[in-house]
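Most newcomers find our protein records easier to grasp once they have seen one. To make this concrete, we reproduce a full record directly below:

…
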Amino acid sequence: MTQVRYFAAAAEAAGRADEEWETPVATVGELREALVARYGAAMSRVLETGSFLVDGVVSRDPARAVGERVDVLPPFAGG
């Protein structure tokens, strides 16, 4: 089981701040597909430019293995 936490627009798209993800996913790419299947177009828009924080390491690599905790991060504005 993986803890998935959602931030900002990702939390809005999911309708929650976090959840225990029980559906088996092995990679960031599989999790991305599962999130879009579960939460639809709003999550898809977030993930187009967002990223994942897998056990403390930022990743956009779909082959990256999913760890115990994954944070779903929307794109951030900087300045």
Q: What stands out?
A: The chain has a mean pLDDT of 92. Residues 28-39 form the longest helix (12 residues).
